[in-house]
Amino acid sequence: ATCTLTGRFGIRHASLCNLSVLGVYVALEDMPALGARGRISFHLPRASEEFRAEVRVCWQNPEFPARAHALPPGCGLCFENLEPKQEDLLRSLAPQVLGILLRRYGGNFANAEDAVQEALIEAAATWAAQGSPREPRAWLITVAQRRLIDHWRSETARRARDERSLAVPEAGVD
Fold first, then answer.
1. Element (H, E) at 153
2. pTM more than 0.90
């Protein structure tokens, strides 16, 4: 996914590589300075609204001398708009929600992890603006389940389209 960074450093377009409750890693060549503050915006898969957050450059990963964890050159951006209490809560709930999804639905670990990450990002945006819900764990489970089901529906529709396109004979071929 692509994202846009804005701040005193100008406007930068980057590729979103990794999302977590604490922030994002973006791939870009012209990195803002360490400690620079700005805003990030991007669309999550299957999300209707653009995600926006205040961020700070927490670490940089230039191409030389070495790339951390084989990531492309870029930087880690920490979310600035969550209260420490909310951050701690999300950090402790993420593994619980992932475990619940895997127990209930089995299946692909990566898809369940993506659904949890999307729920955490939605929580970061929603909770920063509206405060934590009365039952944060239930809120995260509900949102993550919906994201996982959305993913399955999307995959099922894609496979059906692929099968239909393979079943249509080419013109002029006997």
1. helix 136-167
2. no
| C-alpha torsion 107→113→119→121, nearest 10 | -160
Mean pLDDT, the chain, whole residue set? 82
84-105 and 136-167 helices, crossing angle to 10°: 50
Q: How far apart, in whole angstroms, are the C-alpha atoms of residue 52 and residue 22?
A: 14
What are 24's strand-pairing partners?
A: 19, 77
**Structure token digits, residue 42:** 């991007």
Both tokens assigned to 164 = 């239909």
Kindly report each contact of residues 94-99 with a partner whose C-beta sits within 8 Å and lies 24 or more positions away, as own/partner: 94/21, 94/120, 94/140, 96/137, 97/137, 97/140, 97/141, 97/144, 98/144
131: its two tokens: 């405060």
CA distance 103 to 34: 41
Beta-sheet pairing, 50-61 with 2-7: unpaired
**Cross-strand partners of 42:** 3, 51
